[in-house]
Design brief:
Length: 239
């Protein structure tokens, strides 16, 4: 069944959302843009959109096969996915297995510490406020989600972590942390948005080679960033 692509519904830093002839679905088109520091640093890497679309499609499919509910339906073209249209919750849910990034600046934890069990953090998507960290009490007070929905979000995040960790490990990759976004459809909570090296930290398990957006954050050349994304694509999608 082929779909007719309609008008642009939303445009973010790295993705465009289009309507489809079926109103319960949308098209997510991945741009070649790469951004960091809340969008203050920005570049274009030709081909990045299709690498991230392909990686997201593969990982969402994997989660679906493991009954971790998400928005993915199918790929539309190399840089676009057809997904269920969600009413998005403006919260970033971060799951950490190994300490790196903002947590080692915020708390007395040494870089590289492996946590006995994963840490989950919530951040309000609010660029003007620098995406402040919030907890479940804030989420309820701000009417972002009910207690029951927050429980579901935590459960889906932990299950996604288990499935992703195992899958990546089978490809010689280590999952340090990742970020998910959630939405509602008919009263059900689903994982939405993307699942790719823009929103996860992945290292080669034996060499520690960085294969994610940390390269860009830390000033690597665009060519190095692209090569790392291509390697990750090969190891996740093509094997
Ligand atoms: N299944 C979905 N249904 C509807 N919207 C979605 C879905 N998945 C992702 N989106 C939305 O797509 C938009 C574009 O994504 P992108 O990552 O480019 O945005 P962003 O720059 O992170 O910022 P913002 O979310 O503030 O627009 C986001 O608003 C996101 O919430
Ligand atoms: Mg985004």
């Amino acid at each position: 069944m082929s779909h007719k692509v309609g008008g642009l519904i939303a445009s973010g830093k790295t993705k465009l959302v289009y309507s489809l002839d079926d109103p319960s679905l949308v098209l997510l088109r991945f741009k070649d843009d790469v951004t960091a520091l809340d969008g203050k640093k920005r570049d274009v890497i030709p081909g990045k959109g299709s690498l991230n679309a392909g990686i997201s499609a593969r990982l969402f499919q994997l989660l679906k096969e493991n009954n971790v509910h998400n928005h993915y339906i199918k790929m539309y073209d190399p840089s676009s996915l057809i997904v269920r249209k969600l009413d998005m919750i403006p919260v970033e849910v971060v799951c950490r297995n190994v300490a790196t990034g903002s947590i080692v600046k915020r708390l007395p934890i040494t870089e590289g510490t492996v946590f006995d069990s994963p840490i989950i953090e919530f951040f309000l998507k609010d660029d003007a406020r620098g995406d402040p960290m919030i907890n479940s009490w804030h989420m309820m007070a701000l009417k972002l989600a009910s207690k029951c929905e927050i429980d579901e979000i935590v459960e889906l995040t932990l299950r996604a972590n288990d499935v992703l960790k195992k899958f990546l490990s089978s490809r010689g990759l280590m999952l340090l942390d990742f970020k998910l976004e959630f939405g509602r459809r008919n009263g059900e909570i689903l994982i939405g948005d993307e699942l790719d090296p823009d929103c996860m930290r992945v290292r080669d398990a034996s060499t520690g080679k960085v294969l994610d957006k940390d390269l860009y954050r830390k000033g690597a050349s665009l060519d190095e960033v692209k090569k790392a994304y291509e390697e990750l694509y090969r190891r996740i999608v093509e094997t």
